[in-house]
Write a structure and sequence with these properties.
The chain is mainly alpha-helical and 213 residues long. Helices cover 72% and strands 0% of the residues. Helix 2 (51-65) crosses helix 9 (156-171), helix 3 (73-83) crosses helix 11 and helix 8 runs antiparallel to helix 9 (156-171). The longest helix is centred in the N-terminal third of the chain and has 40 residues, at 2-41. It starts with a helix and ends with a helix.
Length: 213
């Protein structure tokens, strides 16, 4: 009887050890799988680096770091330039010899935007898209951007400028003070800025935005 009991005990012990070994082998695999899954879940979309996004970063930096109440337009321009120190993408976009717009130059798109829009030196094809942005009540900005990119009658430079304007207007579509006048201001600001550099276009449009606050 004792011998039978001893043998049963040994069998039970072997079974128990086998179960423990199986659990031990599975544990590392479970841990690795969990790590791989969590690594995948934290992966997001790459940060945007387009001109429209840089413009919004510049505006956000200005609003965050500066109180511009009771400041003149000239002072706003200087403060906005200071805000650019917090936006590395804009700093890297600046060309050698970058110059800020003067208050007189800014007036072309902040106060004289109606006449300035009419006088824009752009092709008829580009103007047709700009007129669409101003005259249409409902615009699918994504579709419009795709149409611009596929338009063989536009130069690569015109596509770059239009894409910036379209994407930015799409990003800020729900602005509570948005109307045709602000759209014209941004268009004129961008186009006039591009005559100097992409950085000037970004700066001009950001300047329009902070005067809208």
């Amino acid at each position: 009887m004792k011998k039978t009991t001893f043998i049963c005990s040994l069998v039970f012990l072997f079974i128990l050890m086998a179960c423990d070994a199986g659990d031990y082998e599975q544990a590392p695999n479970t841990f690795i799988h969990s790590s791989e899954t969590s690594g995948t879940s934290v992966q997001g979309k790459p940060a945007r680096t387009d001109l429209a996004s840089i413009t919004q970063q510049l505006t956000a930096g200005y609003v965050t770091y500066f109180d511009d109440r009771d400041t003149t337009l000239s002072q706003k321009i200087v403060l906005l330039d200071s805000a650019s120190l917090y936006v590395p993408l804009f700093t890297s976009l600046k060309p050698v010899g970058f110059s800020l717009p003067t208050a007189t130059e800014a007036a072309f798109f902040l106060t004289d935007y109606e006449d300035s829009y009419t006088a824009l030196n752009v092709s008829l094809q580009m103007r047709s898209y700009l007129d669409t942005l101003i005259g249409s009540q409902s615009i699918d900005y994504i579709v419009l951007a795709d149409t611009i990119q596929a338009d063989l009658n536009l130069t690569s430079t015109e596509k770059l400028q239009l894409q910036f304007i379209v994407i930015y207007l799409g990003d800020t579509y729900n602005d509570p003070i948005e109307d045709d006048s602000w759209t014209k201001k941004r268009i004129v600001a961008a186009v006039r800025g591009f005559t100097k550099s992409s950085a000037n276009a970004v700066f001009n449009v950001a300047l329009v935005q902070i005067t809208q606050q």
